Amino acid sequence: MINLILTPLHYIYLIFIIILIFAMVKKKDISLLCIIGIFILGLAGTGSMYKSVMGVFNSFIYATKELIPTIFIISIISAMSNTLMDSGINDEMVSPFKGIIKNYWIAYWVIGIVMMILSWFFWPSPAVALIGALFLPIAKKAGLPAMGVAISMNLFGHGIALSSDYIIQAAPKLTADAAGIPVANVISASIPLVITMGIVTTTAAFYYLRKDIKAGAITNEYEIEETTGNSEVSMLIHSKKLRRILALSILVLFALDIFIMYVAKLQGGDATALIGGTAIFILSFISVIIYKENSLEKVTDNLVSGLQFGFKIFGVVIPIAAFFYLGDSAFTEIFGKILPEGSNGIVNDLGVALANNVPINSVVSASTLTVVGAITGLDGSGFSGISLVGSIAKIFSTAIGGGVATLTALGQIAGIWVGGGTVIPWALIPVAAICRVDAFELAKKNLKPVVIGLVVTTIVAMFII
């Protein structure tokens, strides 16, 4: 084992990780705690008040530079989504499914799969309104209660799609950076875990839903407006044929992006750039068609609206990510070379110390990452704490001699499934509002399937490690 002496910096960092976890358990925001942690680390390392103050700001800049591609892609996708909704093209994208949904079990799986696919490209937030408005009346007629629609949308969108995030890659970017590994490694390691979690959770949820429907415990007791989306009058593209052509063209363009990403082996930032560039061209082209002489102003308006959405989502992430980036190379870049000789970063050093003093195995590591990931999701955002699981995965993988990508992916899945909008009531409000169901009741319905899924997925991770 490597003989490494831990300094006060290491212990301060570790203490703050424990404080952050405790604060999340208490459902408190942790941004201020992270700011204080950055300042104290700087003060302990440099002994200078003004350098510590500068370090807080510089750590924000560092985190923003790391996250800006993700913030931009979310903003651009949101801007494009607004334009598609104004045009009515969104209506045509899902219209082929209206003739497929004949009964409640088909409705459950079709709505879920469509929600998952759209969420991969647009994220669940913009997809919720689209899916809810278009599929809810169809599901009601097929015998699927509003609660069933909400469960399906949650588990497939905020669960499977958001926790995997294979297209936009915001989640794996955050966890991979904290773990100090390439994004591609996290994505690759997450595939068997995402499949396990997805199949187990959605199947368990359908099993319980089917029992409730048969027992009459859950019915269409919620009044749902009979609407199939935008009216012909409100759609800025009145020609149904043109809307269909444009909808098909957009789907083809994104399918082509996926093909190019596969052939050219594009990952991470390059893959995000391809999707983002395509979205910008779609936004611009559709804007010219629907807004005509006002297109210049409307493109700007939608981009600004998208940026507001993006920074609203990631505003809470920046100070938290800034703290966790200090666990790796960012500390030296921001505060200078003040770590001891031979140090590989605070997190790596803690991992070495853990390996020297604590017997850690795959069972303990996987179980701990699942629990910590779930705890980070208690704030209801799903993203604000997943940098933490990357850092902890790095510590544990050092202790057991490998498995960092699998542990990182496991923590990411647990954090987002819990906090991204499946079992935390305040994160369920958008879906609950669209489906006209009680958010706390929806959380209660989701809880058991999600817990079962996490247990099975953790066991699978133990064997993979």
From TrEMBL:
Signal peptide: none annotated. The chain crosses the membrane at residues 6-23, 30-47, 67-85, 105-123, 186-209, 245-265, 271-291, 303-326, 416-435, 447-464. The keyword Membrane applies. Coiled coil: none annotated. Keywords: Membrane, Transmembrane, Transmembrane helix. It comes from the Bacteria. This is Transporter.
